[in-house]
Amino acid sequence: MIIRNALEEDIPHILNIINEAIINTTSVYDYAPRTLQTQTEWFNKKINDNMPVVVGEIDGKVIAFGSYGIFRPWEGYRFSVEHSVYVDKNHRGKGLGKKLLKQLIEKAKLQGYHTMIAGIDATNLASISLHEKFGFKEAGRFKEVGHKFNTWLDLVFMQLML
């Protein structure tokens, strides 16, 4: 897999990956698929805010993406970022998310951030395990803060000091 900075022409591929996660998983607590316009606005905001969007590509096809942004919108949080990594459903479990997360951690360090945070659905044991391998520690667990597929969902926050 080649990891590179995302380009505008990657947005439809990113959109397909995120929409599959929205429709079929609890990785994202959204219900409705995003539109191309919404995903384009998201991408442009990331670029304007100097936040990375990286993609993983195999044989010229985008099969994963990751990004981060400021954890909360107040000035005092400017050194804390929250990230996300999504892998195409046909490529999960092959270590691709690990490669993207490593790249995001390196970028966050280079940009001078102090801590990186992940919000993970408590049932996503694979993601929790992945983050533990990078040294993330559970920093909090919120009971039944999400609701999707007629189920209350717990959210785990994990944190890595950079």
TrEMBL record:
Q: Does the keyword Ion transport apply?
A: no
Protein name, per record: N-acetyltransferase family protein
Q: Name one GO molecular function term.
A: acyltransferase activity, transferring groups other than amino-acyl groups
Q: What are the UniProt keywords, alphabetically?
A: Acyltransferase, Transferase
Indicate whether Glycoprotein appears among the record's keywords: no
Q: What organism is recorded for this protein?
A: Abyssalbus ytuae
**Sequence ranges assigned to domain N-acetyltransferase in this UniProt record:** 1-162
| Catalytic reactions of this protein | L-methionine sulfoximine + acetyl-CoA = N-acetyl-L-methionine sulfoximine + CoA + H(+); L-methionine sulfone + acetyl-CoA = N-acetyl-L-methionine sulfone + CoA + H(+)
Source organism phylogeny: Bacteria, Pseudomonadati, Bacteroidota, Flavobacteriia, Flavobacteriales
